[in-house]
């Protein structure tokens, strides 16, 4: 009896201990399950190979297609300023009128000299003809030669007088200073009554032709070497000399006209390591003015590869392009690309990607390699914004961005 009294508390104690251990184990298991986070949703686009444009965005500055500093070629006082400062003028329009009375008098004097010289020619011709008839019947050979020289001198006097008249007429015409081509004038540096001299240092005004207009672009020599390598290997298709060029103005607007390559300076600057490219654009409304800064997008050709939107890519410490992809097991992995080209708002790569691979385009900044994710099909629009694809619809491949 005493033994039963001793064993009963022992059994109760063991039962309570077993229940306590069972409860702790259940609580621990539930907690472990609660702490495991669900897969992080990420936006992905499917990769697809295709032909895509290779582009370069280059800084540039506008310069006038033609520029002329207007200077006088004769001396005199300014009598008239015939243009409105800052206005458009046509080739041949009068810009300045210099006092021309003295030059008109010089022309009249030269005309009189011509008339006088021409008057002596008929007499010399008649005298020579008479000696030709008499040279064998009384007239000496010397007299005949003298008559011939007199005629030659009279004709030479006429030619000299006509040349002087032409020179005087040129000076008279130069008192009217005209526009050498269509353009826009600057301010006038002289006023009516000012004395100007032939070929003076100070320009009277400056004339600029703005339609068409030049855009001077700057490109690095490194990109030039990469371009030549791509062309020689056959990867880049197209003729860069016929590259299509578009402009973005200072306020961010797109210029409506497309330009074409005009020339490139085949010399690399020793200080900046760049070389100059010149493009020409139609500018009918004078929207682009000399001195404006612009950004030019130059389409050099096309290349086959895969597009990685710029928003989905980063650069590692070595400067290599890197992007994150989702594996078939829905794990995150980072891939690097030693060679990449700019294609509008994307990077174009040719290795390390295959059709159907899934590129993470949003949410990758906070996800480490090896993490499990929940891919959500998406697209990237022209502005680089991620657009979720509605359920049941296939995603647009990144190659179509």
UniProtKB/TrEMBL annotation:
The organism's lineage?
A: Bacteria, Pseudomonadati, Pseudomonadota, Alphaproteobacteria, Hyphomicrobiales
Q: Which organism is it from?
A: Pseudorhizobium endolithicum
Residue ranges of coiled coil: 107-171
Q: Where in the cell is it found?
A: Cell envelope
Query: Where would I find the Multidrug resistance protein MdtA-like C-terminal permuted SH3 domain in this sequence?
Result: 307-365
**Family of this protein:** Belongs to the membrane fusion protein (MFP) (TC 8.A.1) family.
Q: What's a Pfam family this protein contains?
A: BSH_RND
The protein's name in its UniProt record: Efflux RND transporter periplasmic adaptor subunit
* Primary subcellular site in the record, as a coarse category: other
Q: Where is the Multidrug resistance protein MdtA-like alpha-helical hairpin domain?
A: 108-175
- What range(s) does the Multidrug resistance protein MdtA-like barrel-sandwich hybrid domain occupy? 66-206
| Annotated signal sequence range | 1-20
Q: Which residues form the Multidrug resistance protein MdtA-like beta-barrel domain?
A: 212-301
Keyword terms, alphabetized: Coiled coil, Signal
């Amino acid at each position: 009896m005493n033994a039963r009294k001793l064993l009963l508390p022992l059994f109760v104690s063991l039962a309570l201990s077993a229940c306590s251990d069972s409860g702790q184990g259940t609580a621990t298991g539930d907690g472990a399950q609660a702490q495991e986070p669900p897969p992080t949703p990420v936006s992905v686009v499917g990769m697809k190979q295709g032909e895509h444009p290779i582009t370069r965005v280059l800084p540039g500055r506008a310069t006038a297609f033609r520029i002329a500093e207007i200077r006088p070629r004769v001396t005199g006082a300014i009598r008239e300023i015939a243009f409105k400062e800052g206005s458009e003028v046509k080739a041949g329009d009068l810009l300045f009128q210099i006092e021309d009375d003295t030059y008109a008098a010089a022309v009249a004097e030269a005309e009189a000299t011509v008339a006088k010289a021409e008057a002596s020619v008929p007499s010399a011709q008649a005298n020579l003809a008479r000696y030709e008839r008499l040279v064998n019947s009384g007239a000496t050979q010397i007299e005949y030669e003298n008559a011939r020289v007199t005629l030659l001198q009279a004709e030479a006097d006429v030619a000299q007088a006509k040349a002087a008249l032409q020179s005087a007429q040129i000076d008279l015409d130069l008192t009217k200073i005209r526009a050498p081509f269509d353009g826009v004038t600057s301010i006038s540096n002289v006023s009516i009554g000012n004395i100007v001299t032939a070929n003076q240092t100070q320009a009277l005004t400056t004339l600029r032709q703005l339609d068409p207009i030049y855009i001077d672009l700057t490109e690095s020599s490194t990109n030039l070497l990469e371009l030549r390598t791509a062309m020689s290997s056959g990867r880049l298709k197209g003729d860069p000399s016929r590259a299509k060029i578009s402009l973005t103005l200072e306020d961010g607007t797109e210029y409506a006209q497309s330009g074409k390559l005009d020339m490139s300076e085949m010399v690399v600057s020793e200080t900046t390591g760049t070389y100059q490219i010149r493009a020409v654009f139609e500018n009918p409304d004078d929207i682009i003015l000399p001195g404006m800064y612009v950004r030019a997008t130059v389409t050099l050709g096309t290349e086959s590869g895969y597009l990685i939107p710029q928003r989905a890519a980063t650069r590692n410490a070595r400067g290599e392009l890197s992007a994150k992809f989702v594996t078939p097991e829905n794990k995150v992995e980072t891939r690097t690309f030693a060679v990449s080209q700019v294609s509008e708002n994307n990077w174009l790569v040719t290795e390390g990607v295959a059709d159907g691979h899934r590129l993470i385009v949003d949410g990758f900044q906070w996800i480490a390699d090896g993490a499990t994710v929940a891919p959500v099909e998406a697209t990237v629009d022209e502005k680089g914004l991620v657009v979720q694809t509605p359920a049941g619809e296939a995603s647009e491949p990144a190659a179509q961005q």
